[in-house]
Give the backbone structure.
Amino acid sequence: MNRELEYMFVERARVWIPDADEVWKSAELTKDYKNDDASLQLMLEDGTNIEHNLDPKTKNLPYLRNPDILVGENDLTALSYLHEPAVLHNLKVRFMDSKLIYTYCGIVLVAINPYEPLQIYGTDIINAYSGQNMGDMDPHIFAVAEEAYKQMARDERNQSIIVSGESGAGKTVSAKYAMRYFATVSGSASEANVEEKVLASNPIMEAIGNAKTTRNDNSSRFGKYIEIGFDNRYRIIGANMRTYLLEKSRVVFQADEERNYHVFYQLCASSHLPEFKILRLSSANDFLYTRQGRSPVIDGVDDTKELSTTRHAFSLLGINESYQMGLFQVLAAILHLGNVEIKDKDSDSSIIAPNNSHLTAFCELVGVTYQDMSQWLCHRKLKTANETYIKTLPRLQATNNRDALSKHIYAKLFNWIVGHVNKALITNFKQHSFIGVLDIYGFETFETNSFEQFCINYANEKLQQQFNMHVFKLEQEEYMKEQIPWTLIDFYDNQPCINLIEAKMGILDLLDEECKMPRGSDDTWAQKLYNTHLKTCSLFEKPRMSNRAFIIQHFADKVEYQCDGFLEKNKDTVNEEQINVLKASKKFDLLVELFQDEEKATSPTGQVSGTGGRTRLSIKPDKGRETSSKEHKKTVGCQFRNSLQMLMGTLNATTPHYVRCIKPNDFKLGFTFDPKRAVQQLRACGVLETIRISAAGFPSRWTYQEFFSRYRVLMKQKDVLQDKRLTCRNVLEKLVEDQDKYQFGKTKIFFRAGQVAYLEKLRADKLRVACIRIQKTIRCWLARKKYLRKRSAAITIQRFTRGYQARCLAKFMRRTQAATIIQKYQRMCIERKRYRQKQAAALAMQTILRGYIARLKYQALVREHKAVIIQKIVRGWLARCWYKRCLYSIVYLQCCFRRMKARRQLKKLKIEARSVEHFKKLNKGMENKIMQLQRKIDAQSKDNLLVIEKFNSQETSSSAEKEKMRIELNRLRGVDEEAKTKTKQVSSLQEEVERLRKELSTTQQEKKTIEDWAQTYRSEMEKMVSELKDQNGLLKKEKDDLNRSIQEQSQQMTEKMARVIVEETQQLETDLNEERSRYQNLLTEHRRIEEKYDDLKERTLASNVSKPGHRRTDSTHSSNESEYTYNSEYAELEEGSRAAEDVTRGIDTSLTLKLQKRLTELEQEKQSLRNELENKEDQFQRARARDDVEFKKARGAELEYESLKRQELESENKKLKHNLAEMRQSLLGNASTNSGAPGSPAYKVLLDQLNSSCEELDVRKEEVLILRSQLVSQKEAMHHKDEKETMTEPSVYVDVSKLKDADEIKQAYVGLKDTNRSPRFMRNPLEVSDLLSRLRSAAPDFHKLNEDGELWLVNQGLKETIRLLEHQLQTQRRGHDNEVEALRGELQNVKEENNRQQQLLAQNLQLPPEARIEASLQHEITRLTNENLELMADDPTASREARVIILRRMVDLMEQLEKQDRTIRKLKKQLKVYSKRIGEMGAGQAEAQTSPGQMVDEPIHPVNIPRREKDFQGMLEYKKEDELKLVKNLILELKPRGVAVNLIPGLPAYVLFMCLRHADYVNDDQKVRTLLTSTINSIKKILKKRGDDFETVSFWLSNTCRFLHCLKQYSGDEAFMKHNTSRQNEHTLSNFDLAEYRQVISDLAIQIYQQLIKCMENILQPMIVSAMLEHETIQGVSGVKPTGLRKRTSSIADEGTYTLDSILRQLSAFHSTMCQHGTDPELIKQVVKQQFYIIGAVTLNNLLLRKDMCSWSKGMQIRYNVSQLEEWLRDKGLMTCGAKETLEPLIQAAQLLQVKKKTDEDAEAICSMCLALTTAQIVKVLNLYTPVNEFEERVSVSFIRTIQTRLRDRCESPQLLMDTKMIYPVTFPFNPSSLALETIQIPGSLNLGFLTRV
């Protein structure tokens, strides 16, 4: 022990020393403590050094302070040092720094009143604590309530929650929240508003039993014990209330700054209401009973509003309006009675003035006579054995009688209200168990303590005794459970104090005895007390300065009681005659009822309580009616003692749970902690006694695994064994020598107080040594690294220096060598230049000479060559002429000779031909000769043609050659003559040369002069041009700046508009999702009410099943999902409910009516929400269209251009269509001829149309260009018009693309001159003619031209013109490109249209006549639709009329088509029947005519079976009586794990739809309706039966969605038929429109989806916290915090620890099941998103409610777990489903735990990082952040305030927790199936053999 003290009381150790102001003050040792030291050297936190003297006798050292790591613990018993300063400091840190008002102290919950509203009592917090163990979550009143609720369900034992504390500590609020918790988590078993009734009792009791005191604005002035009853399913069935010791004296007297009961002020504040005029009330200051405290108003409280709440509560509890007005009349009468003034008549009598207004009002309100009331207020009747006397009363006694009557009336009224509240809360259901909530006053001590304080403190003594015994019992059970040797713990027993009060001859006994004495008084009673107890009891004392007071030593403190008024308050007497007057009231039944027996009172609701309920404990003992004098004989003290004993008996029969409320200060300041007041209350409420009992034993308790994980650093490797227990035992024996400081239990190690701090110090020291070693090594490494870096830097500097010197030397050497080389080459260049000059001169001379000689030779050769050519040409021409003449002569001679011979031969032949014989000879072979001759003639004719052509060509060439020769000859003659002329001119030319040489010299001189002038002018012009360029550059820069600013503004406007559009779109989408969510929530509520209705119906049927003749079967009424409208359902429900009432008379009629009314309201709301949803969608579409229109309007002139272009293209398109039609007609008209050959009519038509189209296209292009230029010019004009308002010198754009002549230039110049009116150019503007003349003049006129700056003006105009031209050119180029692309597209479309028309024509020609008609009709419908769309675009007004006509035509066509279809079907059926008959007849004849041998050799082939399969229409036929069998086999008895696993996904949906198709095919509406109704009801039935089976719910969700998709896919709606095949389009429904049923099935799918989410949530919920927070996925990262936290007893058995792998496996199982069932991928994504939201929300909520989880290491664990979940998403391909985004709040919370949290930069980083977290969540995490090691630091309060300041402007919900019950709105995107219905085969395992394929 001494060794440990020396080790703990060392330098820098922190201790607690007493302080007068702060109770305890922290100090630090500045010197080690030695055993013989008489004092301690300390330094306070403010730096003051003091010396603390020790007690020389006891040598008690000051209390040691716990390590900082243990400060702020959830449980005070988890502190290592358990003493008063540690408890006080821990509470202060949690309350002030962390803003935590709840703290555990063993089994006690300490609640500190924050005096500020906190957002920690919402439904989300209730849901978070529901089902959790008490030690797993942060301390909260809900945790205590949950523990009581679970222990009631687990142990089958009643529970009690005892809430105590001072006035103003928050007892009533704590009790109220506990009841709210029970009402929320349990629900009700009977009517839907039982929970509301239980909660509604609170405002009533607060109004009549609470008042403002100096310590509390809403102080309960009575004690109450509320028993909340539960049935065997632990649902609320009712409640009962018991009250204790109402402070009646407050009715007639209030101290300063206090008020009477709230209800009086509420009535006075509402006196202006019409219904309260009869009460004759006014301001509260006008009545004696409400103005004595001089504080009639409470800040922040509206008494009028509070009365409205009270009246609503009365109505909810069944107290009707008439009874409420009666209550208010009694209360108003009490106020008027207090104002009755009683005056002295003489010394022994008093009188009330006649016609007293207040007494008159009192009598009128209560219905009594003025005379009787005034008499008995001032007189009293005395009875003796024989006579009765009437005695006058003095004024003081009369006033006391008046006040006593007021108090008595109020007490009766209070009891009446409590009784009727209990009647309203009681039910006919049998109570199984209850939870009691005791809201009772805490220990009270004031400057003047009277009878009320005595009773209150007496009750607290009894409760403290019960509390001590319970704590002692729990400690003993814990030690026995762990088999720890039990040592008797001495604790304070207050039984002597209780005996002093309640034992025989005790204070209460003596008080009752004194009250029976005729002349008993307070003084005589005080003397009896002194004589009886002053010497016999040490707890009783007498004050030194008073004989009318006594002192009792209570467990909390000494209290001095003043004896004045004890006897009067204990007697509680009232004048019997006054009561008789009130009983005699004839007009006011309520007043009479107040004074009747409780059993005879009538209920304000008109109902009589049933006999089946439990017996209620009466508030007051029973009183007989026979002798009213005995009514007041029992004293208040006796009554209170009896009721207290009854209460203690109830509490001892239950398991208690304690809540101690602490008042932090007396000034009601928010989060302000007064240590003195807190210590007083901690001592008074038993918290420190709990600490003392815990400290006396082994308060710190660790499991072996926790101890090993925490203190592994204190062990050596050899100490670590396989057995963790043996390892811990060995280590502890080495570390702690005193074995009494710890004990080893079965599962835990128990430590004495202070041992954990000692072990923590050892651990911290070892870690500090390790840190020093690590720092030493790291610093060595850093120093060496720094040295090596310096060494490397020095070497580098040396290297670079030496390199620099070497480079300088090399540079010098290179320069020297370079200079030598330069000299060499320079000299060489000079010599070479000189040589080349000489060489060039010589070569020039040689060249000139040789050229002259060569030219002479060349001229001679040329003359000779030309002469030879002339000779050659002339000689050849002469030879050819001679040859031609000879040839012509020879040919002529030959012709003449041959002609002569031919004539002779002809003559001969003619002579021979005349003879017959010759004719006969020649006739032989005549035909052959004729043919030969004909051939010869043809050949000769061809040869003649060739010869003629050749001759003609030769003649042509000869004539051309001849002409050429003639021309050449003439030219030569001209040349000869010219040569002669030139020789004559040589002499004259030589003279001219001489003259020109003289002129040349003169001209050169003039040229030199002009050049000098030109040089001067050029320099001037260059200077001017440079100035103009500078100005031009400045102007360009300004223009660029302006353009940039304009672009930025336009970009900003575009971005702003886009942002606004996106925001509006997002808002509309959010509204749409909210509406969808509300609609789906209403579906959930509707389903819940349906289930509740079914349960009630089943219960009613079960309760009446034994009655003969009234056995009823299942209801056959259809649900709302199976009808076209929802109204029919409720009509049938009402019929069913009326039938049930006839059968079962025990059912509550009002309940059924309420349920029906509620169902009707919900259905109407559902329908309205559906309409609203549709409206929202329409608004969304309209808003989107409106945004598009606004965006188009913003584009300005571009839209005009686009519209112009569209009109142009439409006109061209129409023209092309017309031309195409003409071409098609031409082609079809000439189909028999060769229409494609050139010259054919079709070819000509096509060519003409092509030419006309090209011409039209050119014309249209020109028109488009003209219009575009006009649009651009208008746009520019508007642009410049706008710029004139903002710019001083705007630029002018002139279209100079067509300025070709002077007039156009003149117009442009005038425009430029008019627009540029700058003062510097306004002197004398030039005319255009002068400008043109100067422009066309010579160079010397430039000065005159630019003398007034016209050149700059023209330059500016040209620049602007060039810009405009460039802009127009670019615009035209873009327009041309777009136009070309559009025309190409149009041309391609025309080609495609042409091809399609040809294909359709070819297909139609190939189709049979029936199909051709159908195809033509379909084509006609399509054509009409297209024309309708075009017409709508052109003329909306005409389009509507045309649309009506077209629709009529379409309807007629469709009717004709349907008639033809029906006819064709009938004919086909008849044809099949006839063909079958003919086949049978033919087969029979063949059998009769064929022998057996022939049959074997030539078998008869049957009909082709595949042909019938090809005709299968994808329908299933069933009989009407087989419908129940179909539903039973396909839905009710189908098991997903059995037969359904091997089926096609969605097979039941396909089968049902195929059956539905057949019912539609035969046009049987009754069959369609019954099939759909049975299907929906059966799915609901199987889900109700097996709704907790995930596979079943998933299976039917998939099939319901597939059935819904089939209804859409085959509905005939074009929007759903885009992806269908032609065969699937043939299977569409033809007779019925099932759109309304699609909505019903969609609602059913939503309900199934929500059931699926509920199933998943039930499976995942137990895993999430254990896997995501508690399990260490990364081993060794999360160190166990050294809290030694005593876990609360778990309410459920330990089922093993879940890990992250458990969640991943479960998620994979969910995913594989849904995939196996064929669930839509989009629906799977929504399910996974909802799963991840549940995981993130539950994890974050538990993180926000668990202080032990908010640490750096836990943040790392969470981030790792989230990364594993993301990896799972990535593996499943679900990263785009939005599931990752749902984890963003959890990720940011984990990052918040890990980031640095000190500086303002850290605060800014946190604010920018945590965008998904609310401000409340961020602050909560920072407040809960708890270091696991001493090296970590807590978050300072200033940093948290900085975060709050930065996040102050955030607009967000103040809700702390995420809504784990929130379900994202589900959508079912259309997912068509590619599976053909005719290919589906039904397996025999489904037992659907009665279905027939059609």
